[in-house]
Amino acid sequence: MAVSFHTEECTFLPQGRRRITAWIKEVITAEGYSPGDIAYIFCSPEYHIGINRQYLGHDYHTDVITFDYSDLNGTRNISGDIFIDPYTVRSNAETIGTQPQEEMMRVIIHGVLHLCGHGDKTPEEERAMRALEDRSLAAYRQANGDYPPFVLPAR
């Protein structure tokens, strides 16, 4: 299993990637699956909205897009590409009144939970997803203390 971190049109990469990777693996295992290859791609808002337009038909900014290559019924391996716009993550954190490092960790695990088969299209799914995110974030904090700093370079 390989969790990898990349950039496209931005220089942001989360700090503490080894601890984050271990946490991601723990969440996947707790969900009853095996970790496969997961690529996190941190990208500019322009790059991210391009993906939204091209592949999802959305003409608006989002913080995370997940492309799922998992085999949940056969090998039960979780694999996929998770595109994150850290600038939108920061903006969303300001809007909802949370710390950007917490919001980044929430978005990171949100993509993994999608790979584990969890949706967020209905109000019920949204509530269930938020509960899973909260549980995962609490597990990270219990094992590691504070979240890694969120250091976003100027644009």
Automatic annotation (TrEMBL):
<keyword id="KW-0963">Cytoplasm</keyword>
<feature type="binding site">
    <location>
        <position position="120"/>
    </location>
    <ligand>
        <name>Zn(2+)</name>
    </ligand>
</feature>
<protein>
    <recommendedName>
        <fullName>Endoribonuclease YbeY</fullName>
        <ecNumber>3.1.-.-</ecNumber>
    </recommendedName>
</protein>
<dbReference type="InterPro" id="IPR023091">
    <property type="entry name" value="MetalPrtase_cat_dom_sf_prd"/>
</dbReference>
<keyword id="KW-0479">Metal-binding</keyword>
<keyword id="KW-0690">Ribosome biogenesis</keyword>
<keyword id="KW-0255">Endonuclease</keyword>
<comment type="similarity">
    <text>Belongs to the endoribonuclease YbeY family.</text>
</comment>
<feature type="binding site">
    <location>
        <position position="114"/>
    </location>
    <ligand>
        <name>Zn(2+)</name>
    </ligand>
</feature>
<keyword id="KW-0862">Zinc</keyword>
<dbReference type="InterPro" id="IPR002036">
    <property type="entry name" value="YbeY"/>
</dbReference>
<keyword id="KW-0378">Hydrolase</keyword>
<keyword id="KW-0540">Nuclease</keyword>
<dbReference type="Pfam" id="PF02130">
    <property type="entry name" value="YbeY"/>
</dbReference>
<keyword id="KW-0698">rRNA processing</keyword>
<comment type="function">
    <text>Single strand-specific metallo-endoribonuclease involved in late-stage 70S ribosome quality control and in maturation of the 3' terminus of the 16S rRNA.</text>
</comment>
<feature type="binding site">
    <location>
        <position position="110"/>
    </location>
    <ligand>
        <name>Zn(2+)</name>
    </ligand>
</feature>
